[in-house]
Amino acid sequence: MDFSNVRGVLWFLLNIYGIPLLLLLLIYLRITIFLGQHSNNQTLVIKQRQQRDLAVIRRIIIIISLLVTLGIPTTALLLILYITGQELSLFYRIAWFTASLSMIALSLSMVVLTPQLKNIVLKKFRHNRVVPLNGTVVGLIPMRI
User: Fold this and answer.
1) 81/125 Cα distance (integer angstroms)
2) CB–CB of 64/109 below 8 Å?
3) Please, what is the angle between helix 44-70 and helix 19-37, to 10°?
4) Domain ranges in the chain?
5) Going by C-beta distance under 8 Å and a sequence separation of 6 or more, which residues neighbour residue 129?
6) What pLDDT, on a 0 to 100 scale, did the predictor assign at position 144?
7) What's the rounded Cα separation, in Å, for the pair 76 and 80?
8) What is the reported pTM?
9) Helix boundaries (H) for the chain
10) What are 86-101's pLDDT values in tens digits?
11) 62 has pLDDT over 70
12) Most buried of the four, 12, 70, 86, 124, by CB within 10 Å?
């Protein structure tokens, strides 16, 4: 895609990036307002379910804000291109680097923010250790007195 075509870039950003982000934010805002209003006179099970739902929404908002933050350098470079009319020499490299960095950050944040995935990954790095029942130290040779 030619980045000098302002109308095409704006259309692309609006359809691919803006509308889904706006819809997600509106949906999650509505859910949090709904959960906040109905927190009175609820049973313990319903309150726990709402807290779990709120935790999931917080995680999703963290991921979205991370992706938006990583999109700022490319957006700044596009603004520089439109204001000056000259494309910087590292424009495509920085754009692709931030895109790949956001993919890595998305993968890592999914592992960190999802407790089940976090347990699976941590299980791979934990080493199973055998602990003797009688409290003796493994590796020592018993000596006769």
Assistant:
1) 46
2) no
3) 150
4) 6-125
5) none
6) 61
7) 6
8) 0.56
9) 6-13, 19-37, 44-70, 72-84, 91-113, 115-125
10) 877 888 888 888 888 8
11) yes
12) 70
